[in-house]
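seq:
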Amino acid sequence: MKRREFIAILGGVIARPLVVHAQRPAIPVIGFLGSRASDEDPQLLTSFRLGLKEGGYVEGQNVVIDYQFAENRYDRLAALAAELVQRQVALIAANGPAAQAAKAATSTIPIVFTVGYDPVEVRLVASMNRPGANVTGISILDVELGPKRLELLRELVPKATTVAVLVNPSDPTRAGNISRAMQTAAHSLGLQLNVLEASSDRDFDAVFVSLLQMRADGLVIGGDPFFNSRSEQLGTLTARHKVPTIFQFREFAAAGGLASYGASLTDSYRQVGVYAARILKGERPADLPIVQASKFELVINLKIAKALGLSVPAKLLSTADEVME
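struct:
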């Protein structure tokens, strides 16, 4: 807006307009702290921007996003979070282990996360309904779904006696929670469970060698941002090595995995964008309850089941959200 004011000039000189420019508000900057590589899972960033747009914010128009990616090196997250804090961003959006790095870096800048575990248990927030402090977000309950995936694997492979779970030691909190939950579930099912670890692509070959050596009847892949970004690769590997395996995303089953069961990760990123927009408009993170995933999809690759010599129970086929043939 411009306002014109006239200044009276003595001596007969004609008054001239003085143009006063109103000061424009600064465009807010969101720091996006990601544990993945910058070129992985672009659909998740698209979903995040979609959530922002639903709240009235469009990147490049009325909001700027400063992207910082750890390239699957979780040890870099603390430094990247500190960098965003130093730049005084208006808000930090973070996924998985990046959420804890962000919280450790600031107690004042709002943080919106998406995680696969109970955020109260790891002390990210005070409670689900009243997060408190400067942190809120979305939980897709991936750790909690681990035992259910093991039960589904047992139904798909009823003669199984020895199984394995794959975790990422780079995130020891999540890896430990997954291992403990899975050991308890395996014990109740009468299964012997072995814990395998991988934190890079080169570790996968060793994982499948170990599965062969222990004569594992099946594998459950624990949730982790690195594994999430390798859903299709892991699906292909499990098909090639003929290991009955269940993971959380449909992409895994479509690429050759036996089955998948979990919540939508793209929807959780959209919700992070929605919450970010609400906070930029003035709401406090402490007042925004943690959103928990409520819809879970079971996908079964019937073609892979037949290749593995497995007969899928009719009950599972009838309850599956999708059967790939």
